[in-house]
Amino acid sequence: MSESRAPFETQPAALETAPAPLGSRPKRGVSLFWRTFFFLSLLLIGCIIAWLQTFRALEFEPRAIQSAQQLASLVNLTRAALVHSDSIARVSLVKTLADEEKVRIALREPDDVYLPYDTDTLNRGVTDALQQRLGRDTVVARAVNGTPGLWIGFSIDGDLYWLQTDPSRIGPVTGATWLIWLATAAILSLTGAALIARLINHPLKKLQFAASRVREGDFDATQLSESVATSEIREVNIGFNRMAQRLSKIEQDRTLMLAGISHDLRTPLARLRLETEMSVADPQAREHMTADIEQVNAIIDKFLDYARPDHTDLQRVNLHLVVEAAVFALGSDASVQINIAVPHEIDVLGDAVELQRVFSNLLENARRYGRDPKTGDVQIDIAAKPRERWVLIKLRDHGKGVLPELLEQLTQPFFRGDSSRTAATGTGLGLSIVDRAITRMGGRFALANSSTGGLAAHIKLPRAIN
């Protein structure tokens, strides 16, 4: 086996873009808290608006009638005062009305130009009510000859007059006070919606965290409370705790069982190998029998590797040293060439023994199934580069690759690809062990056919940053 090293920039098998499972982040949806808060907010704001519109609609008619009664009384009192006063007193009366009540009396000319008092529903209601009380010939205007105000046209003994008063006599339905109360109601409603959404979301967040820990193999890290007040949440927590306990027991039994099988099988295998070397005279038969025994030992090792606990303590590991150790452990083979483009300064968070096992399995897989169809040689390229908080690693061969529809199944236990990649005997656990080990270390693993031929293994590991 030959090994060559080249600078990362000039390496012929430089790290390609990682496949979708590694390079792209999953689409983040809206959390349950914000969904609940959003829908509660819409409901409450809709209720506030509906309440306000209902209030306005119910207030329009009473306010219009009340305003019309006051204005009609003002017109009638003014008409009566003018009718029953002499010319001298009438002048004084008009001046007093203008100074004290802000009511101006003016003659109505035939060529006066006025704008009807119909800007909104309330104003139209006031106009109709005034015409019903004072007569259909009553004119209500919001401006006369360009002068704004509340103008009411009436007659005294056939003479036409204008009565001008302040439009504020008809109070608006909404104002600063209503806006303040509306804003206060909206703020209180949104605060209540946030509290309700948080109350609903809090136990689910705990369940989400506990499920993530169980997924990582940490069955005892989080025990959900079984004494919460809500009966549905309490039943869910009890069921989850029992499930986690059962999974923990199953995991412990599996590890113990495989360890026992390994221990019970290795002793007779060792005796069998010793007896084979001592009793079998034919060197070729002895060599084949010894190889079979070694293969059984290797299979037992694979089972034990696959059955390792899911929890791993992460430490700072130099990636270059781990790769070199795995390459050295592969042994010497003249038909295998390994190109390494892993910078010396790259450190990852992981377990050194687990990482060396990962690269050993990948190298062995590439050595077995990654031979060039033309030359029969094996060329393996290993490259790595940091990217923000992660380190992307690529290990590829130059063989035939695999069918695209089989890529996702290669990491399943005991699965083997097409016949071209299963010529050698094995357990079918090598890539499964790699996938489990990378997951235990908080990374991601994916397989893809290289654009230039061969199978590429993509690894994404947390970067150790000072």
Automatic annotation (TrEMBL):
The chain crosses the membrane at residues 32-52, 178-200. Its EC number is 2.7.13.3. Residues 198-252 form the HAMP domain. It catalyses: ATP + protein L-histidine = ADP + protein N-phospho-L-histidine. It comes from the Bacteria. GO terms for molecular function: kinase activity. This is histidine kinase.
